[in-house]
Design brief:
The strands form five sheets. Strands 8-9-16-17-18-19-20-21 form an eight-stranded parallel barrel, surrounded by five helices. Strand 10 and strand 11 form a beta hairpin. Helix 4 runs parallel beside helix 6 and helix 8 packs across helix 10. It is built from 17 helices and 21 strands. 34% of the residues lie in helices and 18% in strands. The protein is an alpha/beta fold. Bound molecules: acetamide (ACM) and zinc ion. The site of acetamide has 4 residues, from loops.
Amino acid sequence: MSTLFILLFLSGCKSRDSRLEENNYNIIPAPVSLVPVPGAFSLSKSTSVIVSPLNEETSKAAAFLASMVKKSTGVELKVTEGKKARRNAVFMAIDTTKGIEAEGYLLEVKPKRITLLAPSAAGLFHGVQSLRQLLPPQVESVTGTEDITRFIVPCCVIKDEPRFRYRGMHLDVCRHIFSLEEVKKYIDILALHKMNTLHWHLTDDQGWRIEIKKYPLLTTVGSTRKETLVGHYGDKPEKYDATPYGGFFTQEEAKEIVKYASDRFINVIPEIEMPGHAVAAISSYPVFSCTGGPFQVETTWGVFPDVYCAGKDTTFAFLEEVLTEIMDIFPSPYIHIGGDECPKERWNVCPYCLKRMKEEKLADASMLQSYFIKRIEKFVVSRGRHIIGWDEILEGGIAPEATVMSWRGIDGGIEAAKLGHDVIMTPGGYMYLDYYQSREAGQPVAIGGFTPLEKVYSFEPCPKELTEEQNKHILGLQGNVWTEYIATPSHLEYMAFPRAFAIAETGWTPRLKKDFEDFLVRFKSQCPRYDIMGINYFKGDYRISNEEL
Ligand code: ACM
Ligand code: ZN
């Protein structure tokens, strides 16, 4: 009897130890400091979550943890307010005395209790994401039947804070649209990796995807294209699928996304493209173009000559009304106004635009573009927000307070930072996740390029061309997912992940702590979690050397 008991006890210990090895502190992004300690905390039905103070913001971290445990095990952890840690409890407290950055946290896992301290509710939330990654992957299950006693957390002390304050992912829903559920899943995956921004690309030539009450044609007309190019843009002869394609988000749906993201401490930055990439808009309201149209929502990819007319005051009145509704939906301090790839051929012959250039003493069309962006910036700033624009907004003179998203390499970012402007780095060669990630046969058609995981991981956002002071303008980095060639959720996930995880690590982990081999080990150990979450991440050769194949 006693021998059997000892055997059972030993085998219990063994399985527990092997589980510990499985989740051997494999957190992504790698924390600033993690000290492993022997032992483990075991969750149980009677584990409680104590929060100090418990309010609308701090309850988000607690609710996230409790809801994850409820979904996986069916067990409802008690969440209460309290000032002290207790046995068998996860104690979360706002604590501004530890000298950690706003989004940082301190996590101490002991056999009897877990303590999570942070100077902000966002920090608590990020701490919960680390705790989540220390728990077994089954915590991601939604069966409600997992055994809570198997949810053990290896003891450790983590002190952590982000390197950059902007850690973003972009999502183009214009070329192809994704459902509310998929956008939420995308947000969930970003939250797991401590990213804090979703840049939502909502308008483009091939579709206008957000309801604007004052201008209903934007969605009744502008959200649908009559068909879509089949295959790659370069394929000849061109083929189309003869199938109408469209869709849009109502304002209520967009607000649902904003709320969902904000519960996960992710800010949603809407992008309303101007003055180029406007064909869906001017197909709906041709009066805001130079020629008056008619136009149709584009069915192929690229850059198109018809853009908003910069000479008509009515164009600006329209855009201001659109932006007013957008700012009512999105509380984001930043509004992205596009600014990229605006051909000037219509402006150069348009009487309205020529008149504007003459009156405003603008030497050429690039200065007219600068006038356009500055005028829009003035409006956005008057409403207490800031603009972000792609690096073309530098041409002809940058708007006084604009933040630049450097996408044509890093030069635009360098120039902007030297001028004292804030910068988000998103250079095509590293951060465009619509590029190929593998030379292996059978890859789905992509726009081009070659950006394997290792290359994405190698990106350093602070250029050596900048001084330390100038580098303070580098707010962070972002991965972009343009969806010309990405039509389904599973394909979206295939292109975005795990490359976005590498971006998350560059955004969070200190430069000198980054190590691709170590990242790969952690990533591979987290794959069972991603599998349970149902993420269709790319599985293959992640190294740059796959280029030689
Ligand atoms: C861009 O890729 N046109 C910003
Ligand atoms: Zn014009």
